Amino acid sequence: MDGQCYALLIDADNVSAKYIKPILTELSKYGNITYKRIYGDWTNTQHSSWKDELLKNSITPIQQFSYTYGKNATDSAMIIDAMDILYAKDVDGFCIVSSDSDFTRLVSRLRESGKTVIGMGENKTPEPFRKACDKFTILENLLEEQAPGRAEESRNGISREKIEDEVVQMIQENQDDNRQTGLGEVGSRLVSLHPDFDVRSYGYNMLSKFLEEFPQIKLVKKGNFLSVTLREDRGRKENVDRYVMTIVKEAGKNGIELGILGSRVYEKYKDFKIGSYGYTQFNQYVKSIMHMKIEKDGTILKAKYVE
Asked: What is the DSSP string of 33-68?
């Protein structure tokens, strides 16, 4: 994203000043920050910690008096400025920093206009705002380094099991099209599915290290390309292979219908997935077993044992 320009708009009412340096560092990974504005009622003493950071980080404070008790005037000021910047057409994207869901519609409107929107907020940020962004970063992750391997489910509502299942599905989909699955593709698709996905929520600083912990997944490096593939459980496959061979041998010379064979295998091994062994069809898996062959009996496929 080199060369892209971003407008940074911060809601001082809902974000602590302790995050400012991590925010600027994180956003710099996406491009140049051409607008740096922060909104709040600077007559309010609760914003005193922010005042020390504004000059040091060249952030422009936008004064917005709270004319009516209970109304958030800061939201309106940010929204108006965001639309003005949008129509000026001199930025490629926006970074909206707030833990308030009131900006959800603004984010959607900016994206509808073709702008990338990076959201940042504390862990309490409501899900609608998170999901509306192209990418959402939890501010606590920018401050703290977690111990590797430690799952912080309170930081991120996405369970490890769900992520593993989604990555396995990505790999299987690519296998159907005879394509490899690159590490970069996995990262991009996970963020598309979950804008608030961040490996730092689980105690890692690299996606590759995070994925290596999953029992069904392994990483393979060929030159400069790092691919993500399924880890074959050879012991488990041997057990299933023997079970299939036993059933087919017991069926005798006439063999057994492939559909019936499949039903018996899935009944015994309820979590059996042929995709885990690199196959997309059950008949391909059966043919891979020694002494097994598939024959067509009319319109029915049968598995038979051959010496």
From this structure: EEEEEEEE-TTSGGGHHHHHHHHHTT-EEEE----S
Q: SS3 for 124?
A: coil
pLDDT in tens, 136-145: 999 998 886 4
pLDDT in tens, 173-196: 887 777 889 999 999 999 988 898
Do residues 33 and 6 touch, judged by C-beta distance below 8 A? Answer: yes
Residue whose token pair is 């790092």: 226
Rounded to whole angstroms, how far apart are CA atoms 3 and 302? 60
Report pLDDT digits (tens) over 259-302: 999 899 888 887 777 766 667 788 888 988 988 999 988 889 99
Question: In 10 A of CB 118, how many CB atoms?
Answer: 23
Contact 270, 263 (CB under 8 A): no
User: Helix or strand or coil: residue 246?
Assistant: helix
Edge-first strand listing for the sheet containing 5-11: 60-63, 32-40, 5-11, 93-97, 116-121, 135-138
142 touches 161 (CB < 8 A): no
Length of the chain: 307
Phi, psi of 72 (to 5 degrees): -95, 90
CB atoms within 10 A of CB 78: 29
